[in-house]
C-alpha cells in the first residue's frame, strides 16, 4: 500500500470555513499536524481541537514547502508583507482567493517560485467539493502535491489556461447556489400545486439529495442516461421535460446565468 503524498511543511493562511475544511481533509490524508502552521487571527477552537500539534501564529515561521492562501480577497493586501516572507523560491503557493490572478499574486509575493490559482466550492467542507486550478512554474513534485492536497476535499481538475478559471467560477464555484435555488423553486412550485409548504420543501430537498447521490454512486453513467431512466414515454416526467427542454427552457436559462457569472468573475479579477 502506497503512502499518501504529503508536504514536509505547510502553512495555512486563513482557517475559516474553506481553509478549515481543507485542513481536515489533509489530516485525514495523513498530513502530520506537527508539520502545519496556521496563520489566522482567530482560528476556530473546534478545528484546533481536532489538530493537536498544529502551530498557531508563530512569530517567524520559516518558508514552508507549501503555502496555502485562504484569506478573503480584501485581506490580501494587508497580509501581503508577512506572506511575502513565507513565499520562498522553493515554496509552492496555492491560492484559493477569489478573483486574484497569478500575476496579482506574483506581484505581492515576488520571491515565490511556483504558484497555483485554484477555485474550490463550498461542498469541500464535507469532502464533496469540486476544484479546478491552473499552475505556473511547478515541478513534478509540486504538481503531485497540488493534486493530493486539493483532491483531499473532492474532485480535482487542472485547466490549461488561467482564463478558464472564470468559467470554473461560474460553473462549479457558484454552482451550489444554483442547486439550492432549484430546491427553492421546486418547493415553491409544489406549494403552488397544493402541497403544504413545509412538505413541499422536504420533498424537494430529499429529491435533490437522492438524485445527487445517484450521480455520486454511478459516476460512469451519463447524466442524460439517469434522466432517461426516470422518463417514461408520454408520462408525467416527459410532460415536464417538454417545458424544461424547450428552446427557452432550463438549458438556455442556465447558459445565460453561467455567462453572467463568468463575466462578473472576469470583472472582479481585473
Defining key terms:
2 domains, 14% strand, 270 residues, alpha/beta, ProC C-terminal domain-like fold, Rossmann fold
Briefly characterize the structure:
With 270 residues, the protein is of the alpha/beta class. The protein has helices at residues 17-29, 45-49, 76-86, 102-108, 140-151, 165-173, 175-192, 197-217, 223-230, 236-244, 250-269; strands spanning 10-13, 36-39, 55-56, 66-69, 92-95, 114-119, 129-136, 154-158. It has two domains: 10-169, Rossmann fold (3-Layer(aba) Sandwich); 173-269, Orthogonal Bundle (ProC C-terminal domain-like fold).
Task: Give the SSE map.
Blueprint: E1 10-13, H1 17-29, E2 36-39, H2 45-49, E3 55-56, E4 66-69, H3 76-86, E5 92-95, H4 102-108, E6 114-119, E7 129-136, H5 140-151, E8 154-158, H6 165-173, H7 175-192, H8 197-217, H9 223-230, H10 236-244, H11 250-269
Helix pairs in contact: 6-11, 7-8
Describe what you observe in this structure.
The chain has an eight-stranded mixed sheet, sandwiched between helices. It folds into two domains: 10-169, Rossmann fold (3-Layer(aba) Sandwich), CATH 3.40.50.720; 173-269, ProC C-terminal domain-like fold, CATH 1.10.3730. By secondary structure, the protein is α/β, with parallel strands linked by helices. Helix content is 49%, strand content 14%. Helix 5 (140-151) links the parallel strand 7 and strand 8.
